[in-house]
Specification:
Elements (H helix, E strand, L loop, with lengths): L1 E5 L2 E8 L4 H14 L3 E12 L1 H13 L6 E5 L3 H10 L6 E3 L4
Parallel strand pairs: 2-3, 3-4, 4-5
Antiparallel strand pairs: 1-2
Helix pairs in contact: 1-2
Length: 100
């Protein structure tokens, strides 16, 4: 998995699975520390995703408001959306439907 940053945006590319969760968690934590309010996680180039990976995003989205931040998921493809719905983690994340 490749992780790129573009201002407050974290761009994930490749397979987002249990093997990459610690790297994504660290990168997301850095974006939250450096941004003023909003962090966007761009999943446009994610080829596959699993439940542990989505839990990282759901936890960050749920915890971010405690520190005055906001996390939005952008570019969620059909597989990501399906996994979010099946796992019911969709309740804990905000998906940018306009950019999907």
């Amino acid at each position: 998995m490749d992780i790129l940053t573009d201002g407050p945006t974290l761009v994930l590319c490749g397979d987002f699975d249990a093997r990459s969760t610690s790297r994504v968690r660290s990168a997301l934590h850095e974006r939250l520390e450096e941004s003023e309010h909003e962090v966007v996680v761009d999943l446009t180039h994610v080829e596959s995703v699993d439940l542990p990976a989505l839990r990282v995003l759901a936890y960050a989205s749920h915890a971010a408001p405690r520190t005055g931040h906001h996390v939005t998921l952008r570019g969620c493809g059909p597989q990501v959306l399906r996994m979010l719905h099946l796992s019911r983690l969709i309740r804990f994340v905000e998906v940018d439907r306009d950019a999907a």
